[in-house]
BACON domain-containing protein (Bacteroides nordii), 509 residues
Amino acid sequence: MRLKKYFLYVILTFVSVSMFTSCSSDDKEEEAITPSLSTTPTDVNAKASGEDVNITVKATSTWTTVIDDKVDWVKVKSSDIQAGKLVLTIVANTTLDSRSTSVIVKLDNTDLTKPIKIFQAAATASLVVSPMEVVDIPAEGKEYTFTVESSAGVDWEYEIPGEQQSWIKEKSKADKSLTLSFEANTGSQRGCYIVFKDKNKKASNFNVKIIQLKSENFDPNDPTQMGYTLQGSMKGSADLVGKHYGDVHTYMRKFGWDYSEHPNSSTKDHNEVDHIETVFDATINQYIFRFISHASSALDGDRGSMNDRMRNEMKTQTSATWYKLNGNWGESQILQWKFKIPKGYRPSTSFCHIHQLKAQEGDNGAPVITISLRGNNDGTNRRVQVIHSLGSDHSAGTKSLGTFVDNVKIEEFEDEWVQVSEEVKYDHHGKYRLVITRIRDGKVLIDNTQNDIDTWRKGAINIRNKFGIYRSYGGSGGQITNNIKDETLDLADFVIYEKDTNPSPAAHD
């Protein structure tokens, strides 16, 4: 009985083991490996300068890297299948366009693939010039070669400011160099910026600073050494002493000026006495013009109008013969003249102009530049002002400066001859410089330069220069309300220089 039970136990055990073994074999067949493939990262943003990119590849078998034959900027640097490491080299992008492609990782003997998207930024456009500045060009002139380094896609050119092209000339130009010739300088120190730029406007401009030294023989008071040519001049004459206003007018016309805007020009004005005389002045050793304006002993008007102002002025003529004394479009002029304000001159809060640059034609209402005397009506706070204004068509130029010189005390001028020098470029983007120097001691009372200002008027041919006394009554109706009095103003020694002469002056907007 015992033996039978033992035998049954052995049989059951054998059956169980057989069944277990059979089940285990089935499980191993069901656990066959499923192909898989993954990459990290799946997207690459590469720098324009190029770089190596590490890719981790997880795969159930060997794999292959596939790159399009047309793509020459992505390369396989190394591939370790066992370690699952792939290193791609992204070559530097020298173009100004970004680029992209896909690198394919393929699991061998399967259709399984994984794309790695590659994006590379465009190169930054660059333009570099050396030397960056040349600030010691000798006065006798010299040639300099500039080296130009630029990235692919940059097509460079250069620009010399128009007014500097007369002394800076191109000698030669190649892909990576520019040789310029700087001509001899007989005048003051001069300079500019030469602008190197990309025609495609992708690279930033590169500015090269240029300075040429002045000539050892340069005289800053001689406009001819700065390229200017004498156009005309006028002084008083001993022949005019004791003569009347008509004789002064005739004399001035021979030199391109005239004396026609004054009270003697109308029977409706205060015309019983002359308003100009010629006298000798020992301080400057020449005959000068003395302008006389009446407001207390009598009342002067404006060429017959006795309403609100008085005028006693000389000015340049504007016929074609005398265009050379006036500012024409595109020209530059230097105007030199002298004046003396008497002791106790009483201006007012209203206008009192002694000099104007004013259009003859076109928009000729407001003067371009005015030198004015100003003060309180009680005689305090007396000062010299310089005023810039625009015409009625403000869109033609830059903004009005208004009063840009103020609070220069008249006491510095009283009973003193001063030398005036005005440098003007006539353009909507012009220039005005004023220097006033006291002759007795050489003290500079005003030195002011304004660049990029509108010194033109729409429709004008001539910007004429005017001198004298032109002032307000303070009110209207022929009554003085601002406490002005009889005054004189001495004027002398008019000289005009010009460069960049307009060969055919015509109305210009």
About this structure: The chain has a mean pLDDT of 92. The chain has two helices and 31 strands.
